[in-house]
Design brief:
Family: Belongs to the small GTPase superfamily. Arf family.
CATH architecture: 3-Layer(aba) Sandwich
Protein name: ADP-ribosylation factor-like protein 6
GO biological process, one term: vesicle-mediated transport
Distance between the termini: 19 Å
CATH class: Alpha Beta
Low-confidence stretches: none
Strand content: 15-25%
Bound molecules: guanosine-3'-monophosphate-5'-diphosphate
Number of domains: 1
GO molecular function, one term: GTP binding
Largest sheet: 6 strands, mixed
Number of helices: 5
Helix content: 25-40%
CATH topology: Rossmann fold
CATH superfamily: P-loop containing nucleotide triphosphate hydrolases
Structural class: alpha/beta
Pfam families: Arf
Number of strands: 6
Mean pLDDT: 87
Length: 182
């Protein structure tokens, strides 16, 4: 039997580490130096455990942030998104708060189905003094999130936690595809 295919949206503020994490997911053993920042958005593909993923990697710069919403809505209407990966820089508390307000805007958007699971990467956990997983979870108020989610402490730089997160999401995506819910 061939692979299933699924679509993901990768979002987070600029500098959170989205491109680094994506590079790490795509090539776990490669060095992730020389990542180019995303302008607007870019599309990528990778395969994990029998799922061919199509990823829309959204720039986190403020001037592009309204694209998060419009892309999520358009793709979800047209093609159905299977998951949203939300990356935060856990070494920067102020920016996690900004990320929280952007997250709220996405969650308020009724055209993005609440069946879509969220994978949160609390990135840059290798930096001394970075917020703990619990602190990031509290700032983002995830305990009140009314959808399926997972938060993983990770480092795009060292690779710690990155595969664990995508494995969790892949498990759910497979169930969604098997059940025909997406
Ligand atoms: P973005 O795609 O969200 O904008 P990038 O972010 O992936 O371009 O990463 C922004 C910067 O953070 C890069 O540094 C990158 O190397 C660094 N970075 C990404 N993940 C980690 C991590 O887990 N730990 C640490 N310490 N740094 C990380 P530069 O210097 O190239 O801007």
């Amino acid at each position: 039997m061939g692979n299933s295919s699924a679509k993901l949206l990768l979002i987070g503020l600029d500098n959170a580490g989205k491109s680094t994490i994506l590079a790490r997911i795509m090539e776990p053993d490669e060095s992730v130096n020389g990542i180019t920042p995303t302008i607007g958005y870019k599309k990528d593909k990778f395969t994990r455990d029998g799922v061919d993923y199509y990823v829309l990697d959204m720039s986190g710069e403020s001037k592009y942030r309204d694209l998060w919403q419009s892309n999520a809505t358009t793709i979800d209407d047209k093609d159905k998104i299977h998951g949203i990966i939300f990356v935060v820089d856990s070494s920067d508390k102020m920016r996690i708060r900004v990320a929280k307000s952007e997250l709220d805007l996405i969650l308020e958007n009724r055209s993005i189905s609440n069946q879509i699971p969220f994978l949160f990467y609390a990135n840059k956990c290798d930096i001394k003094g970075a917020c703990t997983l619990e602190e990031v979870q509290d700032i983002l108020d995830l305990k009140n999130l009314k959808r399926e989610y997972q938060i993983v402490s990770c480092s795009g730089l060292t690779g710690k936690g990155v595969q664990e997160g995508i494995q969790w999401l892949t498990g759910l995506v497979k169930l969604m595809i098997e059940s025909g819910s997406r």
